[in-house]
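TICKET: design request
STATUS: open
ATTACHED STRUCTURE:
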């Protein structure tokens, strides 16, 4: 019988707490449930989204053939990989070092900073000595 009284007393205390804090307890459980459902919905949405290839539309005018001059401009669809390949093809293979016409520093052609130089400002050098002869200095970001 002594074991029944504590259970009965515990039950009464829980009942009193429930009656006193019922709105707050329900609100807390509702907020936890909403947060859990929102988190799970975000995970499910992230799993369903698929990444597609990046398509860059570029307007180009070709003047090499007479047919293209009559057509005017045409649009090319290029993926990101094709763009980087074509940019690499435009640069001469002997261009080991690159400098901007607006700067006094030269970069390796593989350096990230050399890729930021606008094509119209780009000066190419086959050897490092050619760049030094022009009075250019090494860029610290490329030569560490």
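STATUS: resolved
RESOLUTION: sequence designed for all positions
ATTACHED SEQUENCE:
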């Amino acid at each position: 019988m002594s074991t029944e009284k504590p259970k009965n007393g515990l039950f009464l205390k829980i009942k009193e707490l429930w009656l006193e804090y019922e709105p707050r307890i329900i609100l807390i459980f509702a907020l936890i449930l909403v947060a859990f459902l929102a988190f799970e919905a975000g995970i499910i949405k992230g799993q369903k989204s698929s990444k597609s290839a990046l398509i860059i539309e570029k307007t180009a005018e070709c003047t090499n053939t007479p047919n293209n001059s009559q057509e005017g401009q045409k649009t090319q669809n290029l993926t990101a990989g094709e763009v980087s390949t074509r940019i690499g093809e435009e640069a001469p293979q002997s261009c080991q070092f690159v400098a901007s016409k607006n700067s006094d520093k030269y970069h390796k052609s593989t350096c990230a900073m050399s890729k930021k130089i606008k094509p119209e400002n780009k000066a190419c050098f086959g050897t490092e000595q050619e760049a030094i002869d022009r009075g250019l200095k090494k860029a610290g970001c490329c030569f560490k």
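CLOSING REMARK: The CA atoms of residues 37 and 43 lie 10 Å apart. Residues 4-48 form the longest helix (45 residues).
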